[in-house]
Each structure stands twice: as C-alpha cells, then as structure tokens.
Amino acid sequence: MIKSKFRQKVFSVVQKIPKGKALTYMEVAEKAGSPRAYRAVGNILKKNYDPTIPCHRVIRSDKALGGYNRGARKKLEILKKEGYSIGHDSY
User: Fold this and answer.
1) How many domains does the chain have?
2) Domain contains 26
C-alpha cells in the first residue's frame, strides 16, 4: 500500500511536467515527498507504459538522459520534438 501511494505521487508529479521541460529523478522524489527515493522513482518510471505519464521528461541529476523503457534514442527524440534540449534547466 505504501509503495502504491508513493507510485501515485510520482505519477502525479511527472504528469505536471510541461512539454519542453524536465525534472531530475531526485527532484521528482523530493516533490513526491521522499527526497532520498530517487532510485525508486527510476524503477517506478521504468515499469510505466501509460502514455499519459510523460516519464521521458525525467532525467539524471547530471542532466544526462538516463534510462527509458522505450530506449534512450526514443527518449531523446521525444524530448527534442517537445522543444527540450539536454543542458536546459529543469522547471
């Protein structure tokens, strides 16, 4: 149940990231109320296949892409299409 609540918080945070912007896994964890759970955020998003949750908008703290369950190339392609370029500030 606790994991489920955290998962819903993560999805809620990620759904609010606007096109052309990104948050880091750590920022998502902080906004979801568990600042040290950034790895859990990655694991939750890795298993997400719901297209309404834009998990491609979550990147690593060093501004590198990080993982994506549809492949890094696809993640970069989607981010560029939305107007985000690696190295931008997160929102």
Assistant:
1) 1
2) yes
